[in-house]
UniProtKB/TrEMBL annotation:
Full protein name: Centrosomal protein of 104 kDa
Basic residues: compositionally biased ranges: 667-676, 862-871
Lineage of origin: Eukaryota, Metazoa, Spiralia, Lophotrochozoa, Mollusca
Keywords: Cell projection, Coiled coil, Cytoplasm, Cytoskeleton, Repeat
Its biological purpose: Required for ciliogenesis and for structural integrity at the ciliary tip.
A UniProt-annotated Pfam family: CEP104-like_TOG
Name of the gene this protein is made from: LOC111135569
Compartmental location: Cell projection, Cilium; Cytoplasm, Cytoskeleton, Microtubule organizing center, Centrosome, Centriole; Cytoplasm, Cytoskeleton, Spindle pole
Biased composition (Basic and acidic residues): 677-688, 701-716
Domain named UVR: residues: 209-244
Length: 871
């Protein structure tokens, strides 16, 4: 079965540098084609080489719209079997010629497509292009060819060339051998698929063309498998995609023309239209399901994002000399014109030099019903029934085209009377309302685009009054708020964004119409998604405009809106309303409470109001009732603990007086933070290391212990004391090995209350580690305090840390651990319990080491009663 044959241009006798012959190797709506050089000599030659030796069945030439040749001759070239495959060895046979119309009747706006049937075998095709038709646009006497297409059968083996199987695809040949009944389906020697026609590729979007070919192959497979319902769906999809591909191809040409004219706004608009149109079509056709693999119902994953056709590579160095082989002498039979197929209707070319009018509306939609005619009578009087009928069409592409046409007509409107301008405005707003409610995203976006132009350009251009802005917004904003509850996320977001955008338009902002319309209390029966969307719009408006004078937002309209929203049955709606009230209270304070129920015990039992009242208390700097209750409970608990501790100490004194036990002083005297310089750990590990000078912390500790001892001597000389040199003043551990050097080792590696700074390696208390990083460390300039968790955060991470707001908030009346970032008990006992207990800080590696030590190991015996421990 004949098919499209791939080829490449290998020789051209001349070319314009802007329209090189390499353009002929590719087919797409953006193909510029080949043009001869200016004032060239005729005839011009082009030689193309096929990928394989083939039997040519059809040749197609798409001529330029005004650089038109009078005649084109065709030659097929082949190479004898005994010679190498080289253009120098080619032998050409003349096939005949075709004549081209001068195109005067079409006004040089159409391109002529010539299709001729041939039957010849070869590897090369040569075109001999004769002089041009003369017209006012062809000022340099050039000729141009937009595209060449060759259809035929590749010769796969050197057997009898009259055997149809020679040209059959191997896969299809094997299928026929397995099932001879399939021969009638596959072996069609004269059938040429419409998808191989030049017109298909030249006016189809390349991506759509590729999908259509895949669907066509699927359709053939479905027929073989007798899946006729599936084949029917594929046929309908192919038909629809062909229309879509042509429209996208037209958009691509318009976009390129806009880029060449440096009209980048129009180019951007066309790009957005193309992408949205493409994705909407894919969604409507459910394309992944149509492209199932191997007949299974598992959809094939495809990329739905639009692709860009790569720019065709420029033709490398082309030979400008004529091949040495000359065609055989002509005979009367050779002068026959080749049979040309019936040419298709002229196709307008968007970038033709002659000006052309375009309304943007094509095709005929279904007629409007009587009810629709009555409903749209006002718009019909202004725009006419053909345009309005497209806006009412069941085909969404017609509806989109109607809005684009209205946009162009309104933007270019030259009416002068105020009444005529208002009539045009009202008719446009009527169509915009329908577009906003449209289910198709592309139509919805076109409606927003038209409304934006009305509010920012049209009304100001024609110097209409403020009431016209109010009219336009008042009529459309209910539709936008309703669209905010759409099931499609992008429709919801676009509608909310547009409401906020139009609220900032200078002429609209001065009317305060947007805040006024948006803060109308919602109905409690309103759908949750729509109610939440409207609440979010009001929240954004409040942040954008505030409640300053002439903003349109007041405490009254905001609170009436929010109090109503608090009664909605959706938690998401109530949550947004609660946020607005909290933000408003920071600014307005007491007036906000006038719209809420009284602050009493009864209302505080309702979770929603209790949370609001407690928030108000925090904003006012007052402790909430729950915090007061908790604080009172903590005070009572601490008081009880103090009583128990005093009772315990009293009992100890009584026992010592009766001689039952010795006095045990508090294991932790007033501590001083050690500031040890980094030491060599190998020295600390070596027991035979020479004695070192006592550390600052050890000296200070001794001084405190001596003062403590002296005081105790004065109070009671009969109470024995432990030697404080053997006690860690931080963790309270007592060990005989705690000499000056032993304490340094303990501080450096084992004390659970201390840690080494990761920057300066100084040993510091964990309780004051944050302050060390901020005020004492060598790299203190690299840190900054987080106002939320109060920890020292590296400045490189500070912005990200504060923006995330995920840190644990430091609470008043508690300590905040810099290791595990948790709030812990207050005071020194809170630190000790957290850093040393079995259920304490999981991020303190020294805690487990301290817990695993044998309690009695290394402890000294108690001194005899009445004896003082020697120093």
């Amino acid at each position: 079965m004949p098919r499209k044959l791939p080829f490449r241009v290998i020789h051209v006798s001349g070319q314009d540098e802007s329209y090189r012959a390499a353009e002929l190797n590719y087919h797409s709506p953006l193909t510029k084609g080949w043009q001869a050089s200016r004032y060239c000599l005729y005839p011009q030659d082009i030689v193309i080489q096929l990928e394989n030796r083939s039997r040519l069945r059809k040749i197609q030439i798409l001529s330029h719209q005004y650089l038109i040749a009078t005649k084109i001759e065709f030659f097929v070239g082949d190479i004898p079997d005994e010679q190498s495959q080289d253009i120098e060895n080619a032998r050409y046979t003349r096939l005949g010629y075709v004549s081209l119309s001068d195109n005067e009747k079409t006004g040089y706006k159409a391109r002529e497509l010539k299709s001729v049937h041939v039957d010849a075998i070869g590897l090369y095709l040569k075109l001999n292009i004769h002089k041009n038709h003369i017209n006012k646009y062809n000022i340099y006497n050039q000729v141009g060819i937009i595209a060449i297409n060759v259809i035929g059968d590749e010769i796969r083996r050197p057997t009898d060339l009259t055997d149809p199987d020679v040209y059959l695809d191997p896969d299809k040949r094997r299928a026929i051998e397995a099932d001879p009944s399939l021969e009638g389906l596959y072996n069609k020697p004269d059938f040429i698929s419409p998808l191989d026609d030049l017109a298909f590729d030249m006016y189809q979007d390349p991506e759509i063309a590729g999908i259509i070919r895949k669907l066509e192959k699927k359709k053939q497979e479905a027929v073989l498998q007798e899946r006729f319902e599936y084949a029917k769906k594929l046929k309908a999809a192919i038909s629809e995609l062909q229309k879509v591909g042509e429209k996208l191809g037209k958009f691509e040409v318009e976009k390129r023309q806009a880029v060449e004219n440096e009209d980048y706004d129009k180019a951007k608009l066309k790009k957005v239209q193309m992408d949205e149109y493409r994705l909407q079509v894919y969604k409507d056709l459910n394309l992944p399901d149509l492209l199932e693999t191997s007949g299974s119902r598992h959809p094939q994953t495809i990329d739905l994002e639009p692709i860009r056709q790569p720019t065709p590579p420029r033709l490398q160095e082309l030979s400008y000399r004529t091949p040495p082989q000359t065609p055989p002498p002509r005979t009367p039979y050779d002068e026959r014109p080749l049979p040309a197929m019936k040419k298709p209707p002229p196709v307008p070319e968007e970038d033709d030099p002659p000006p052309e009018s375009s309304s943007g509306i094509t095709g005929e939609p279904e007629p409007m019903g009587e009810k629709e005619l009555r409903e749209a009578s006002y718009a019909i009087d202004v725009f006419g029934e053909p345009l309005v009928s497209k806006a009412y069409s069941k085909t969404w592409s017609y509806r989109e085209d109607a809005l684009l046409a209205v946009y162009k007509q309104v933007q270019e409107s030259s009416v002068s009377g105020k009444e005529e301008c208002r009539n045009l405005l009202k008719a446009t707003i009527f169509l915009v309302k329908r577009a906003i409610d449209d289910k198709v995203y592309a139509v919805f976006k076109a409606g927003l685009h038209l409304l934006r132009m009305i509010l920012t350009e049209y009304i100001a251009k024609h110097k209409l009054q403020k009431q016209d802005y109010v009219y336009a917004v008042e009529k459309t904003i209910p539709n936008l708020l309703h669209k905010g509850g759409d099931t499609a996320a992008r429709c919801r977001e676009d509608s909310k964004s547009f409401v906020l955008e139009e609220a900032s338009f200078p002429d609209v902002k001065s009317t305060n119409i947007v805040p006024h319309e948006c803060t109308k209390p919602i109905k409690l029966s309103l759908a949750p998604r729509q109610a939440q969307s409207q609440c979010e719009i009001v929240e954004s408006l409040y942040r954008q405009l505030g409640i300053k004078t002439n903003s349109g937002l007041t405490v009254d309209n905001l609170m009436q809106f929010c109090v109503t929203a608090l009664g909605h049955n959706s938690g998401e709606v109530r949550e947004v309303a609660e946020r607005i009230i909290k933000e408003l209270y920071k600014e307005a304070k007491e007036p906000v409470k006038d719209y809420l129920p009284p602050d009493n015990e009864k209302n505080r039992k309702i979770t929603l109001y209790r949370q609001l009242y407690e928030y108000f208390d925090r904003v006012d700097g007052k402790p909430s009732k729950s915090e007061v209750k908790k604080r009172k409970s903590d005070d009572e608990r601490k008081k009880q603990q103090e009583i128990e501790m005093l009772q315990q100490q009293l009992q100890q004194l009584k026992d010592m007086a009766s001689g039952k036990q010795d006095y045990h002083p508090s294991p932790r005297p007033k501590k001083h933070k050690p500031k040890l310089k980094p030491v060599d750990e190998s020295i600390l590990e070596n027991k035979k290391a020479p004695p070192r000078r006592p550390s600052v912390a050890s000296k200070k500790m001794k001084q405190d212990a001596k003062k403590k001892n002296d005081k105790k001597k004065k109070d009671d000389d009969d109470i024995s004391m432990y030697n404080m040199d053997n006690i860690c003043i931080f963790c309270g551990e007592r060990n005989e090995s705690f000499t000056e050097e032993g304490l340094d080792l303990h501080y450096w590696k084992h004390c659970p209350m201390l840690k080494r700074c990761t920057n300066c390696k100084q040993v510091v208390e964990i309780a004051s580690y944050t302050e060390h990083l901020l005020t004492e460390c060598e790299l203190k300039t690299n840190y900054q305090r987080c106002p939320r968790c109060t920890e020292a955060i590296p400045k490189s991470d500070f912005d990200e840390h504060t923006a995330a707001k995920s840190c644990n908030v430091a609470r008043t009346g508690t300590n905040h651990c810099p290791l595990c970032h948790q709030n812990i008990g207050a005071g020194e006992e809170g630190w000790k319990s957290h850093l040393m207990s079995r259920e304490g800080c999981k991020q303190n590696p020294r805690r487990l080491l301290a817990l695993n030590k044998t309690p009695a190991a290394g402890k000294t015996k108690a001194a005899p009663k009445g004896k003082k421990t020697p120093r």
